[in-house]
């Protein structure tokens, strides 16, 4: 799990958020404040909802392209539960909330596979995820599920 993440403001430009992602060497940033999570912005969100449409990252706010439907977990959740949620929701990243419902990090599919590399569940998850993504068309709805990649 990535910890100590600084959420970006929903009013920030996508360019500023992308610069933060590049500096932190991550594929997603949480959107909101340390107190309240409003969404998640992924590299895929930027590609599909900004670049493909020919929009300028310097002129578009994060709120306009972020995924606002969030699927979250807790640090104490069992790996199986998080694997299942990722598979069911077809996401690779899930924000982690602490006991006070404040964001404490992001767990990725890669994190889970690294924690249990020899688990048959890891291989199953990767196969299922890859198969589901090949068959699914790109989403276009304005209120999209979080992290569609």
From TrEMBL:
<dbReference type="Pfam" id="PF00571">
    <property type="entry name" value="CBS"/>
</dbReference>
<feature type="domain" description="CBS">
    <location>
        <begin position="66"/>
        <end position="124"/>
    </location>
</feature>
<feature type="compositionally biased region" description="Basic and acidic residues">
    <location>
        <begin position="133"/>
        <end position="149"/>
    </location>
</feature>
<feature type="domain" description="CBS">
    <location>
        <begin position="1"/>
        <end position="59"/>
    </location>
</feature>
<dbReference type="InterPro" id="IPR051257">
    <property type="entry name" value="Diverse_CBS-Domain"/>
</dbReference>
<dbReference type="InterPro" id="IPR046342">
    <property type="entry name" value="CBS_dom_sf"/>
</dbReference>
<dbReference type="InterPro" id="IPR000644">
    <property type="entry name" value="CBS_dom"/>
</dbReference>
<protein>
    <submittedName>
        <fullName>CBS domain-containing protein</fullName>
    </submittedName>
</protein>
<keyword id="KW-0129">CBS domain</keyword>
<feature type="region of interest" description="Disordered">
    <location>
        <begin position="126"/>
        <end position="149"/>
    </location>
</feature>
């Amino acid at each position: 799990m990535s910890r100590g993440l600084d959420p970006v403001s929903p009013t920030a430009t996508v360019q500023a958020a992308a610069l933060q992602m590049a500096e932190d060497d991550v594929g997603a940033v949480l959107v909101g404040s340390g107190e309240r999570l409003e969404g998640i912005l992924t590299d895929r969100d930027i590609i599909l909802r900004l670049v493909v449409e020919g929009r300028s990252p310097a002129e578009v706010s994060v709120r306009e392209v972020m995924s606002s439907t969030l699927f979250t977990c807790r640090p104490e959740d069992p790996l199986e539960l998080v694997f299942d949620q990722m598979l069911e929701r077809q996401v690779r990243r899930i924000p982690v909330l602490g006991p006070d419902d404040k964001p404490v990090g992001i767990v990725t599919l890669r994190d889970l596979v690294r924690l249990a590399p020899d688990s048959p569940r890891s291989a199953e998850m990767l196969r299922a995820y890859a198969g589901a993504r090949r068959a699914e068309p790109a989403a276009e709805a304005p209120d999209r599920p979080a992290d569609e990649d």
